[in-house]
Structures are given as structure tokens and as C-alpha cells.
Amino acid sequence: PLREVDPPVLDVLNMGVHQLLGTRIPTHAAVSASVELARVVLGEGRAKFVNAVLRKVTAHDLDGWVEKVAPPYDEDAEDHLAVVHS
Fold first, then answer.
1. Which end of the chain is more exposed for a tag (fewer CB within 10 A), N or C?
2. Dihedral (C-alpha) 68, 70, 73, 75: value to the nearest 10 degrees?
3. Is the pTM of this model over 0.70?
4. Ranges of each domain in the chain
């Protein structure tokens, strides 16, 4: 669960996910930079966790993730629109 992830790890993941889905930074560069930051600041174990999560994120582009996480419009229009337009 997300609440069990340490806040500094979440900070690195947030930056990495933003680079992967919100910029044109090449995938390998975004993952590498985030993992290296985690390794230097948080340690090897957490860097491996960051690497695993960000590699999963690379499986889809932003539109693909929105499609996966947004509830169907006809089931929950408000939450669907909140996810799609956030």
C-alpha cells in the first residue's frame, strides 16, 4: 500500500513518474537519474525499489495509465473526469 512507502521514496518516485509521463526525457534517462538519486540519498535497497516501480510505469504512456486507472464514465462520471483532467 502507498501509505507504507517512505515519504522520501515517494518524492523520488513522483519526480521519476513526472519525467516519464509528463516530459520528453528519454525513458532510460528518467529511470537512471531517479534510481541514482535514490541510491545516493536513500540507499541501495530503496534504489532497487524505485527501479522496479519506474520500470513498471514505462509499460504504458500517460494515456494508457489514465485509461487503466480512471473509472468508467458511465459508472462514476465525477471521478472519471477528475482523473482524466488532473
1. N
2. 90
3. yes
4. 2-60
Torsion sign over Cα 38, 42, 45, 49: negative
pLDDT per residue as tens digits for the range 29-76: 999 999 999 999 999 999 999 999 999 999 999 999 999 999 999 999
Per residue, the 3-state secondary structure of 8-48, as one string, reads: HHHHHHHHHHHHHHHCCCCHHHHHHHHHHHHHHHHCHHHHH
Whole-angstrom distance, CA of residue 14 vs CA of residue 26: 16
Place of cell 495509465: 65
